[in-house]
Design a protein that fits this description.
Chain lengths: 275, 275
Amino acid sequence: MTSEAVPAPAPRAGSARLIQLLSALALPVAIIGLWELAAAQGWIAAGLIPPPSQTLRTWYVWAFGPPGIGLNPYSGTWFSTCLYSAERVAQGYAQAILIGVPLGILIGWSRTTERTIDPLIQMLRPIPITAWLPFSIALFGIRNFGAVFLIMIGAFYPIVVNSTHGARDISRNLVRAARMLGTPERDLLWRVIFPNALPAIFTGLRLGLGVAWTAVIVAEIVAVKSGLGYVLWDAYYVGRMDVVLADMASIGILGFLSDRLVLLVAARVLHWKQI
Amino acid sequence: MEADLIAPGASEAGHSAKDCIRLVGVEKVFAGRNPVRALAPIDMAIGRGEFVSLLGPSGCGKSTLLNVIAGFEMPTAGRVVFFGRDGPTPPGPDRAVVFQEPTLFPWLTVWENVVYGPRAQGRRKESYAAAAERYIDLVGLRGFEKHLPDQLSGGMKQRVGLARCLIMEPEALLMDEPFGALDAQTRLQMQELLLEVWDRLRTTVLFITHDIDEAILLADLVYVMSARPGRLKSCFTVGLPRPRRAELLTDLDFNALRSAIMAEIRAETAAAGAH
């Protein structure tokens, strides 16, 4: 073996990826294995914490079982339940983006907007979404829009704050360069300030999405009668801890997938950032 | 070889017809708790098609002077007259600036950066595409049109910074230590490139530097600036023939001029120390 004997790069990269995957999975697999073992040995009461195998079976019936069986009201409702929650997140999140991004950019760019609107946002921001619940129910009742409203409020703050930061965080000379190249004053915002703020905006979008999923669960527990949050609390009340666990895992998967989606869009839009 | 500093008011009625930039008693004080007097009253005239170097130590206010001419900053007192038009004039493509840091738009490719100005002014592609290709060729960037700024070396970035100015066909090119951040070899290359470009275009250039060799090699006139508050101390005419190349750096006349300017700067430093 001489030092020149460099192994071919392709299989090496492949095996490196495999090792990465295995080391990522090792701990979760160990925990699930231990948990299963603990349940099988009777170390934990099955009614309190159902074993992973049972949770998976429940999950399967929840997703693919025949709907409308009286004994198991959850059977076959998983997809529609997920859709309810995802739709609410999509609606509230989209509204938060539509309001938060332009407003944040304006606050970061214009002193007038900063002085008039930013103080109000900063005053309302410490109020957690849970505190908005009674207000939202009183205003919108037990209806869909109440949930969407809470999601919008929750996702709005990280989006607006990061957009503001992005618009402020611009080198003075970059604006000067745009001016000296003849950019009309009214075009500066979308030609320079907005693209420059995009990395910060996407940070806000990712944070906002996390809050949106928190908000939808809270809202569905209290303010509407459908979706993953509703099922979560309902199942807890009737002692179906297996459904509770499957529900939690579902929320995690949807949150993860939607975050990947945002990352995918970010990679497209910010292609100039990743070299 | 040494010319007297242009006396205040001397250029007032004089050769204004062929003046490109004229400064009359331009002063700059940065307000604050400890106001900083960056520029003492400065009178200066730069003729049309002249290449003028402004030589001075760091912090002597030479960049401030450039910013005032570019319209980035307002003079505290005095006037900037540009082609007979009395200031204050907002920044514009008639006085294009090459910054010390390249200050390109990182989300735009080389091509998009070069054609930024014409696009920002809403010009049609047919009106600038040929010119863009010509200037990209002239600064030696052919084949890099699709690259992003982050994929370029420092010297290449400055070529883009130069090309995006040239495409605006400015009346004057203001260059703020554009090669100061480059390594010695690249700097020499860029100096020769600038000489070549200037020989073709003969644009009026104000070139700011703290490098004596660079100041002499490039310019027709070298103004020496004193430390804060910045004032023009003396002016040297560079009689070296054009076209010039870097070999000139070993020329006898070049070195004689170099010695004279160094002596001037040394006297200035000694005087400053005596205070």
